[in-house]
Amino acid sequence: MAGDPRTAQLEILNEVARIATLDLELRPMLQRITDTLAEKLHCEFVALVTIDREQQTFLCEALASDVETSVYVGYGRPLGSGVVGQVAASGEPVLIDDVRDFPNYVETVTDARSELCVPVIHHAKLVAVLNLESTRLAAFHGQLPLLTTVADQIAGAIASAQKHAELQRVTAQLEEKTRALEAANSHLASAIETLHRISTQDGLTGLSNRRHFDETLALECRRAARTRGPVSLLMLDLDEFKQFNDEQGHQAGDELLRRVGSTLRESIHRAADVAARYGGEEFVVLLPGTDEEDARRIAESLRKHVEESGAVTVSIGVATIVPERDEDSSEKIVRMADEALYRAKRAGRNRVA
Questions:
Q1: Does one domain contain both 16 and 152?
Q2: Are residues 221 and 125 in the same domain?
Q3: Is the pLDDT at 171 greater than 90, yes or no?
């Protein structure tokens, strides 16, 4: 961690606390936490595992690794096996400066030299284990207090997510036994789906909303920073929309926004691509793993489709970056796309810049 260690540690704790409030499902939340710790601590391997007392095993729920490893999401071993299994069985943390001197070490990470395992305990019950490994000797010396605090922060969120997952399993069993409960659960599932749609979709166009876009962009930038792959962003603005709104009325303006949203939705085909309403008459299209040439081609295709739909044209700014771990890539690519959009507007609109 560069800079003031206390400031860096506070940033880690704040980010982990923020993530713990975002997701109800267990694995997405834990994956974001492992990604954050790997990035902020410059650690080659971070994993979070949960404990199955009935089966006397532990199970990997989330993993962030820059080195070769035999561990994967779903990987498990008996309690007591290896350092993780030891911590899972004892509930006590283990800090190892050199794994070659530790008799219970099981090699799952190529060239690992040091390891830190911290129990995650909620109301005196072990709910998970946080495991960090590095190819450097004594990489985690002095980090136990910080990781213990991280474990305390996420303990409640993990316990709540596990309870939610258990509730879902119980609900599924009840659905098989009684048609009445099946109908009730169907209504509940519909309500949950509706709430999810409301929280992630723009109500007018049906595209992703700004909040969902911001979260997805940050996630894709972190992923691309690890893989050294490109991320592209298209920022679209409807030309002369205010004039159209004033002349045709707000209902016609809303219908126009819906039509443009539909055109965007029909024009992107990869599951990873995200089209969102950014605000007002502005839209964005996130293209993970797309280089500058392909992004420009997609942008020009979108521009033509909107123009052919009639009534309006769009100006599009295109930006492509290969994110770096130590920069705010999300803010950078949005700024670049916005500047490109401004150039397209200034050059005469209905064009790609």
A1: yes
A2: no
A3: no
188 belongs to a structural domain: no
CA-closest candidate to residue 216, choices 132, 151, 313, 288:
288
Distance (Å, whole) CA 87 – CA 81: 9
Give the pLDDT confidence score for residue 81 in this predicted structure.
87
Gap between the Cα atoms of 248 and 190, Å rounded: 37
CA dihedral sign of residues 166, 83, 111, 219: positive
Q: Is 266 a catalytic residue?
A: no
Residue 77: count of CB within 10 angstroms of its CB: 18
Pair 151, 257 in one domain: no
> What pLDDT, in 10s, does the model give residues 210-222?
999 999 999 999 9
Q: Among the options 39, 281, 308, 327, which is catalytic?
A: 281
Beta strand segments in 91-230, E: 94-96, 114-122, 125-134
Residue carrying the six token digits 């409960």: 181
Out of 107, 132, 164, a domain closes at 164
218 with 154, same domain: the answer is no
